[in-house]
Amino acid sequence: MTRxxxxxxxxxxxxxxANRLRRMTxxxxxxxxxxxxxxxxxxxxxxxxxPFGTTRPESLVRPRSAQLAKGVTYRLDxxxxxxxxxxxxxxxxxxxxxxxxxxxxxxxxxxxEETEGLTGPGWLKNVFxxxxxxxxxxxxxxxxxxxGGRLAVNVVDMPIKCPxxxxxxxxxxxxxxxxxxIRDRVELSLVTPLDGAxxxxxxxxxxxxxxxxxxxxxxxxxxxxxxxxxxxxxxxYDGREEDFDLAVVVPVHGGSAWVxxxxxxxxPLNFVPTDEQTLQSMARPEVFVxxxxxxxxxxxxxSVAHFEGHVLCENVRAHLAGEAPSARYDGHANCFIETxxxxxxxxxxxxxxxxxxxxxxxRIGLPLLAESRTNHVAKRLFEQFYxxxxxxxxxxxxxxxxxxMAGKVPAPMPASSLxxxxx
Length: 423
Prior knowledge:
Helix content is 23%, strand content 25%. It is an alpha/beta fold. It has three domains: 172 residues, FAD/NAD(P)-binding domain (3-Layer(bba) Sandwich); 142 residues, 3-Layer(bba) Sandwich (FAD/NAD(P)-binding domain); 90 residues, no CATH class. A five-stranded parallel β-sheet has the order 5-2-1-9-20, with helices on one face. Strands 11-18-12-13-14 form a five-stranded parallel β-sheet. The longest helix is centred in the C-terminal third of the chain and has 19 residues. It starts with a strand and ends with a strand.
């Protein structure tokens, strides 16, 4: 009997899981179907570089269907809702797709309309986002003509995709204006709802110190309630105001709307409550979730989808075999953080362990919690790794799903000593 695995979402997580499962299962006994509403796969880490003219927008887009292995069916359609009891996916086209296992990988959606004034008269004029292809392209034109003033990078609320990206934008903007010789005419701020630069204290102290060194203002615990583009100001719910001439805003994120229409599946933000270790939905054991769609404590970052994918595929295979899922995801995430002038910092952490200095993935590897040119080169080369290794779901020797401890220095270090310099 052929059983069907339906994967909702053809982004990073959905694609790598489909390809990995295809290699792990017999095509005659397991049918794998990927559903998405369009055929445009965007390399999202590249959006960061578009506003600064170092990446062409069109180079970031490839067909979703072309990234899927032979033997995986791609279906272009929009999900309307899931019936958990009937184990069916209802499509906007009117079709219904039955499943034995459902994998939810539909990611997070930008919801700029949730913030008063954000999409008002200043949208894509003096208020932008680089979290979409159109927004990043429009912002590139705005930065090119920006000759000075107040630039505010604002995170409206958490969680967001790639939590380090707003920090990276601030670092790259600092370097960009220095290169143009106008940094002394720009007041640059990161306005965040967090109580520091990042969610992990050691990394937050390191990054906060680097902001201070570069003269980037860090405005914390700021919950934006309104973006007044006409007056050029962000207004927080507690009445504080931050002025701007140019605002770069990361909008509120939420899960897919269809999740909210599927009884018993999602939370109030349309993310899917998920067992953070087995990656099974809390609603049904045959429903698995990965990437940005899940409500687990891990960052909503591409590396998380990569590491989760290993665990999820093992557990899907176990479920299909009638066995209890035994693979466990430990919250492993790592992020390159561009810091400008051809340097970057790398952090590696999981649910329970803070980012630490040392090397990744082992004693011989990339420097952690230290700016280096090597990290910058690795980040820029990652795009090829993404298309040719990560999306195909291939194993990488020496890099597994669990966070490695080899090469790390677990002893606490003073925050001032962590932002070292390396070549």
